[in-house]
Design brief:
There is one protein chain. The chain has about 160 residues and is α+β, with helices and mostly antiparallel strands. About 35% of the residues lie in helices and about 15% in strands. The protein is built from five helices and six strands, in the order αββββαββααα. The chain has helices spanning about 5-10, 50-60, 90-100, 115-130, 135-145; strands spanning about 15, 25, 35-40, 50, 70-75, 85-90. A two-stranded antiparallel ribbon has the order 1-2. A two-stranded antiparallel ribbon has the order 3-4. Strands 5-6 form a two-stranded antiparallel ribbon. Helix 4 (about 115-130) runs antiparallel to helix 5. It is globular and about 50 Å long.
Length: about 160
Amino acid sequence: MADGETVARYWGSVLRRGPDDCWWWTGGLTDTGHGTFRAGSHTTATSRVIPAHLFGYRLAHGVGALAGGLVVRHRCDEPPCQNPAHWLAGTRGDNNRDAAIRRRLAGHALADVRGAAGRARAVQAAIAAADPEHLDAAVAAAVAAGNPAGTYQDALF
């Protein structure tokens, strides 16, 4: 966390938007749509790949912020989201209950027909192709494409 180059690389892969909006990860993705990040350095033998939101959570709250057995949950249910305001600590059970409750909501991230990884890749492609002045519209269109029967709401709280 103290390595400025690693922190700069992390933020270089985050599309920061408004304080209530999702901040999209533009780097590598897992098959569940979560960001992947190489923390540390090869030259100092501290390099390892971790979930991007775990790095971000520790950056925002401190290295020891997650007690044993806790995970980082996304209030927005967008696995690639890097907005610290959208994260909270909880158990895997809490995370699974969140998903079970919200996965059938029309227009919700968990109801996307492409799945979480497909949705994340579509948003990344839209960000890469968009004119910087139209990023929000491009993201909204990419998200809406996976929920044809519902509407997209960027922030659920």
